[in-house]
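User: I'll paste a sequence; please echo it back and then give the predicted structure.

Assistant: Echoing your sequence first, then the prediction.
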Amino acid sequence: MNDSMPHPCVTSPFSMIPKNYQHLLALAFAVQEINDSPHILPNRTLGFRIYDSYDNARRTCQATLRLLSVQERLVPNYACGIHNNLRVVIGALDSHVSLNMANILDIYKIPQVETLFSVCFCDTPGLPFYQMVPHETLQYEGILSLLLHFSWTWIGLVFMDNDNGQRFLQNVFPMFSKRGVCFAFTERVPPETYMNQIYVMLEKGAKIYDKLVDSKANVVVAHGESYSIAIFRWLTYISELENRTSKLKGKVWIASAQMEVNAFVYQRHWATEIFHGALTLRIHSNDLPGFKSFQESRNPVSTKGDDFLRHFWQQAFGCLFPSAIAEDVEEENCTGKERLESLPGDFFEMSVTGHSYSIYNAVYAVAHAMHAMSSSEVNHRSIMEANGQKFRNEEAWQVMFSKHYSDSEWELYLWFFFLPSVKNQNSQTLTIDEETRPLSVCTKSCRPGSSKKVKEGEPYCCYDCITCPGGKISSQEDMNDCNPCSDTKYPNKNHDFCLPKTITFLSYEEALGLSLAFLAITFSFITVLVLGVFVKNHRTPIVKANNQKLTYTLLSSLLLCFLCALLFIGEPQILTCLLRQTAFAIIFSVAVSSVLAKTLLVILVFMATQPGSRMRKWLGKEKADAIFLCCSLIQVGICSAWLGTSPPFPDVDTFSMAEEIVLECNEGSMIMFYCALGYMGLLATISFTVAFPSRKLPGSFNEAKFITFSMLVFCSVWLSFVPSYLSTKGKSMVAVEIFSILASSSGLLACIFFPKCYIIMLRPELNNREQTPGGACREQVTAAEDSLLATATSTVLVAISSSDSQL
């Protein structure tokens, strides 16, 4: 741009993109407004020259040298003759063209104002760039926000195969990946090429087309230059050229701000449906008063000094002026009466595009800077572009040269080709039908109750949905991991929220607890009846045959054992926890010690009756009482040590049962618990070992055989108790122990006392001293006792089996 009369534009014999002609008009319109305004650069006239770079480095350098040469003679540094004062150069739309210009302009210190969207040229050392648009990375953040808003996490990237495209990939890949967006593919589109490379471009385009069609990604982010949409249109043309049946549709395109909806002339009738509904970010723009009329006034017949106009007119309307008609050309003649409003949007727009508005602002920025430097008010003040110096005019726009772009505003534009599901209710709101909104994810969202598991060898956006394991939930979609419920809660069936656990213990209000309590009371009542029978018949031979004190002690111990079972039912308390295990261990040890003493007494009696036996001196109640007391006191010592070191206490178990909080008694020390249990087993084993050899001793009142069977029942019950106790949890574990107590105690009661009660109550004729060993009556008594003993034993074992099946 220079401060002289406008110079005629240089004519280009080459093809151009018709839509770019509006950029020229925006520059000319701004210069005309400034020259007509008395407030900006009074007594000065701005002029301009416009050159076509043809998107070619060599021609760009030639055009730049012409600007710097006298009378466009392409003779650098030749200053003889008329020389216009070149103030500033407004760069091209594409960054690679501007960089080619900058290297030459920097030699002459000619400032260059950029309206393109690219990296910040202010960061390029040694080059005098002034950028009119935000940093390019800001639009990447805008695109990322758009993707996240619609939950589009599986996308494709299509960009031009040049330095800008490579820089775009390097910036976008880590930025998007960090926010959870994955890339289904990244494809490089060949730039415009020479005819001898057309087949290479078509082959590459066919591969890109197949990738777009086959990919599950329904969102494609496109990056390129101002002309890139015209290049991307080849994708549709390739599918028609090769008669492909698969169509590229249903994709949402998100275009970078550099790209405009445009086309080459030969693409006039090419399909555009693949871009319908495409979204793009654009720098904020305003309507320019009078610009529409300025455009409408352009006429190739009457307008002078615009050599681009005729060329644009021919390409845009598909006609030829009579002076340009060649042979074998079937286009109609241009009349000059064609209307710009009738052109499609990809050829020309009557409204101001973002690029045109940036060029308009660039011209005004330069004019204000020149005006400020020439004004007497600022003659002694330097203008620093890096300090945020502002320039204003009476219109509603503002320009700022600054290194800070965080306050820049962007607009979201929708390219309407055909999109019936979008409604623009007002100027600020865009409403999209959620039912028709496309999804673009590698894997559908994991529902609540499941979590994501990344597939091996695939991007992290591709994952399997696995159900939350036990004890964990996920209340939201697409959670990376499930969260555990608290100790007092458990997951519901769908694993999407936690339910409070039920507090439970073996109570009298439930069937199991009530049944066990009933059994304990029933056996206690039976024991009382048996004790009553023995007390009533205490003078009969069968009662007097053994130590009555031990018999009464054994019955009393069994009665207390049955009642001990009631301590295990109900909510655990401090006292019940202290007594339930220790009381049973001591009482049952007393019972087994009584059995052991009775067994030894029977053996000593029969051994003493042998001729010449020396065992008579071991007979006596004192010896039996000593054995009984010694064996019982050992268990008392074990339980006392237990209570003194690690006593049982009420506890809350939140882990054993998935849906229940179990109130239980913590044993305090499992070692002491198993010591007490093991000692009872030792006493039973000794009793069984002693009684088994003496089971066939003669005599109607021989208890050895009954004791043998009772110890066999005891050992069977408690050997099955240990694995059952360890394998059950919660109140079932308590029920197992109660049943073991009842079964072992009832086994002693039935095997030892039921045969005697049978004789006392049903066969009193056998309850006399005349039934001595060796007689027929002895055989009858023995047969009756054996039959009753077998019946009692089978009854206990059946009860054990039945109770096990219930548990």
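The CA atoms of residues 15 and 315 lie 8 Å apart. The longest strand covers residues 182-189.
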